[in-house]
Q: What sequence folds into this?
């Protein structure tokens, strides 16, 4: 009976949190295998490499349980692929299985956010309840930004979970809650570094800042907790050594950086160079147009792009796979509260006010503000800013600040006269209507229109095309597939059920293997190829006698196939 009473008390205490986590799970798992409507090439690559590891212990290129996963000329941190190995074993070669680790990570991120924020306000005089932690978790559960990437097999989402878990444990240790928390923090941070490239800049800077503002207590903690701190340090050093080895010996990430960094933006230096040549290169011109000053300006521009209101509220990411039609990353109704929360926390971090109290005074406020302004530092070094995925580590700072703003407004209204309370009632009604409309609009756009409008961005049609081709494959000498949709070879490997133990990628599979060849289609040149199946997009197949068509969900042709005699 005592045990039952304790359990009922626990359920009552955390009933709202359980509801929020269940809501987060439902939104992330509902139609997970069908929406997004297809695996993109990165998801297909993760799946095939995990399947290859499961079957052979080697990736698609024959590397034995590698520290990095080679993919399309780039190298990815290995953690997501390794997590897929047991997932594929349990659930088979399905879209659901590939996205399952991300959906789980997204759901548990909502839960961990509650405990992280609760730790920020632990022992607070004003907020010793769970209003702000619970609100923060709820806002993250329904966040368009977080939901978008929780339903895709994205390493960034997995890395975000481990980063937030590491933050929670580090703050617990610094607040003196648990000695072992420093060991858990070290483990979670290490896993985050093995999940996503951008975190390899953000995580060390975040840790250094937190340890700096707690420097007064740090030495005493280290002296009194030498064994556990020593183990944590060893784990951190091993992780750093592993990452340095992959970067400088295996050249991991360098290929991707060379493709996406600001140093490779075409024509970035053309105008400054022409200006120097035109005006004879005097000292002021050379100084003002010095290449590294240009790069610094470009970096600052990319950094500030991530604080653009169009990015937050209107457009979201520029890549269709990373956004929902006509929906921003944040809701409009959140924005006023976000600004209020940001204002209060910034002032508290500077020691200018204290109407609400963090667990460690202004230290927790400083952590939150630093996190908010640190998040886009890695993304800003790349072209194509702003990027919702590379700056995903912004989350859940937006939701925490918004929750603080909401609670602060409510507390201030409670102190005012009755007439203001009545006005607040009207305002609350209007906000509830706006909340309902925006939430309904977003869910409708995501679960209905995303699959229809952005099917092309998801390389929809590859599964249907490859499965049909494999049935008829023996009829042809050669099967030529267009490269206009990018990386067709990985879809043929995955949906064609090629055995990894028999088909090892020699680095040329993107050009062709078995009967498949991957080329830009020119029907007039290829129509005389004997007993061939030519598969291309509509503009490539002009004049071809079309045998069959694979269409997008809206009926638009994705792949057209024609046979040669």
A:
């Amino acid at each position: 009976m005592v045990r039952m009473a304790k359990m009922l008390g626990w359920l009552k205490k955390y009933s709202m949190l359980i509801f929020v986590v269940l809501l987060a799970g439902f939104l992330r798992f509902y139609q997970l295998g069908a929406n997004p409507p297809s695996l993109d090439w990165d998801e297909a690559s993760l799946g095939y490499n995990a399947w290859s590891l499961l079957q052979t212990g080697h990736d698609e290129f024959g590397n034995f349980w590698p520290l990095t996963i080679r993919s399309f000329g780039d190298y990815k941190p290995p953690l997501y692929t390794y997590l897929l190995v047991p997932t594929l074993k349990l659930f088979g070669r399905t879209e659901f299985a590939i996205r399952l680790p991300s959906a789980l990570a997204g759901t548990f991120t909502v839960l961990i956010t509650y405990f992280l924020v609760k730790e920020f306000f632990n022992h607070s005089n004003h907020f010793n309840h769970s209003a702000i932690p619970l609100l923060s978790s709820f806002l993250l559960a329904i966040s368009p930004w977080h939901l978008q990437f929780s339903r895709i097999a994205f390493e960034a989402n997995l890395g975000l979970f481990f980063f937030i878990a590491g933050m929670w444990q580090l703050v617990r240790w610094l607040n003196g809650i648990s000695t072992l928390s420093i060991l858990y923090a070290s483990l979670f941070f290490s896993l985050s570094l093995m999940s996503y490239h951008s975190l390899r800049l953000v995580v060390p800077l975040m840790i250094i800042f937190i340890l700096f503002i707690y420097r007064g207590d740090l030495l005493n903690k280290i002296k009194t907790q030498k064994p556990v701190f020593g183990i944590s340090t060893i784990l951190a050093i091993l992780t750093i050594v592993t990452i340095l080895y992959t970067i400088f010996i295996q050249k991991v990430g360098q290929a991707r950086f060379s493709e996406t960094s600001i140093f490779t933006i075409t024509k970035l230096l053309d105008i400054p160079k022409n200006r120097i040549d035109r005006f004879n290169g005097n000292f002021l011109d050379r100084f003002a147009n010095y290449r590294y000053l240009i790069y610094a300006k470009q970096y600052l521009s990319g950094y500030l792009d991530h604080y653009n209101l169009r990015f937050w509220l209107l457009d979201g990411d520029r890549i269709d796979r990373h956004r929902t039609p006509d929906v921003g990353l944040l809701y409009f109704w959140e924005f006023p509260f976000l600004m209020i929360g940001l204002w209060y926390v910034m002032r508290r971090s500077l020691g200018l006010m204290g109407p609400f109290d963090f667990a460690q005074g202004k230290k927790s406020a400083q952590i939150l503000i630093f996190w908010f302004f640190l998040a886009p530092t890695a993304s800003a070094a790349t072209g194509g800013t702003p990027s919702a995925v590379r700056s995903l580590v912004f989350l859940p700072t937006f939701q925490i600040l918004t929750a603080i703003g909401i609670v602060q407004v409510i507390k201030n209204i409670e102190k005012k006269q009755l007439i203001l309370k009545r006005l607040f009632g009207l305002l609350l009604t209007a906000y509830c209507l706006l909340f309902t409309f925006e939430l309904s609009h977003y869910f409708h756009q995501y679960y209905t229109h995303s699959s229809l409008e952005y099917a092309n961005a998801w390389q929809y049609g590859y599964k249907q095309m490859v499965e049909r081709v494999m049935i008829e494959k023996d009829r042809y000498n050669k099967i030529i597939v267009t490269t206009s949709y990018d990386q067709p070879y990985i879809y043929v490997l995955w949906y064609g059920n090629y055995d990894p133990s028999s088909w090892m990628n020699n680095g040329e599979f993107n050009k062709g293997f078995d009967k498949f060849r991957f080329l830009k289609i020119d029907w007039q040149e290829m129509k005389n190829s004997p007993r061939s199946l030519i598969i291309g997009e509509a503009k490539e197949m002009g004049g071809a006698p079309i045998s069959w068509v694979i269409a997008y969900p809206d009926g638009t042709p994705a792949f057209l196939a024609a046979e040669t005699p």
